[in-house]
Fold:
Amino acid sequence: MAILVVNAGSSSLKLSLLDDGDRVLHAAELAAPRARVNPRELEAALGSELGNADAVGHRIVHGGTRYRRATRIDPEVRAGLAELAELAPLHQAKSLAALDAVGELLPSLPAVACFDTAFHATLPDAASTYALPRQLRESRGLRRFGFHGLSHAWVAERVPQLLGTDGAGLRIVSCHLGAGASLCAIADGRSRDTTMGFTPLEGLVMATRSGSLDPGMLLWLIEREELDPALLAQMLEHESGLLGLCGASDMSEVIARADAGEGSARLARDVYVHRLCGAVAAMAASLGGLDVLAFTGGVGEHAPRVRELAAARLEFLGVVLDPDRNAGGEGDAEIGAAEGRVRTAIVSAREDVLIARETRAVLRAA
Structure:
C-alpha cells in the first residue's frame, strides 16, 4: 500500500510517496504562505509520480481529547477537526486547508488523519493538568495536550533500534528542536511529560515563538500597552523567540553571529540553551532519571554547537559528548562519549514513516 504523506508546515506543504517498505519513492515541497497552496502547483505535483498512491495520510496538529489515535477521515471527522480549530487556529487551519486541497484532487483515495497530540494521550494527570479552577478546566477542556507527537513517537521507536537496546524501562528525553521546539519525557515508549501545553507556545524558546512566559507579565502588557488579542498573538507567535532576541530566526545564523562576538546573538544563543537545559533536567526529573538524550529536528540534527553547549550544562546528569562524533554526526548516530552515563544520539526526523504506518494500520483494520 503506497501512502501519500501530506505534511502542512508554517509556510510550506511537504508531499512524499512511501511504498509498503517505507521507502520514499518521490517527494516535493510546495510554498504555502498563510496556508494557501497554489492550486496549479499542487495539481502538477499530484499529477506526477506522487499521484501513484493507494491512500493519503495527513499530519493534523490537534486531535484534542476526541481523537487519541489515527482516524479515517469522513465528513463527520472533517467537521470534528474543524471544531478543534479554535484550540490551535494558526496550525489547524493549515492542516485542514491541505486536507481539502488534496482531497479535491484525489477524491477517490481513502484518507487518514494522524495527530501530533495523540502520542501525549498517555500523559499522567500530574503532567497534563493546569492549576486552574476545576469548573473552568472542565467546561473549557483546559489541559496540557503536547505537540510534535509524531516526531517524539519516532524517537521512542528508533532509539532502541539505533542503540541496540531493549526499549522496556528505557528513559529517554527527546529533544525536537526545529523552528518549533519541544521536549518529551519517554518511558517504556510512552509519553510521560512534555514541554508544550494547551498550545504550541508553551515551553522552549523557538525560532519566532516566545516559549513560556509569566502570565502576569502578559496581563500587565495588555493593560499598559492596550494590546488586543490579535496583536499579542502576532507578537508571541511571529516576532519573539530567537528573532525577537537578535533579529535572526535561523539557528545557524545565530550561532555564526554569536561565535563572531555579536552581543545580541550571544544573548539569543545563551537564552535558548539555558531554557533547553532547564527543560531537559525537568523532563529527567519526571522520569526519575535519564538513560538516553536524543536530538531530532532541523536544529537538533544539524547544530552541533547547540548540542555541545547543552551537553556541557548537562554533564551533572551524566551527558558527555564525543567531540568528533558530535561534530561529524549525520543521520541516525550515537554521539556520546564512552565515559558518559547517559547515551546521547541524533535521530533523523521521520514523521513521514509514522504517518504512512499509521495510515496503513487504520485502513487494514477497517
Summary: The domain at 3-115 is CATH 3.30.420.40 (Nucleotidyltransferase; domain 5). The chain has a mean pLDDT of 94. The radius of gyration is 20 Å.
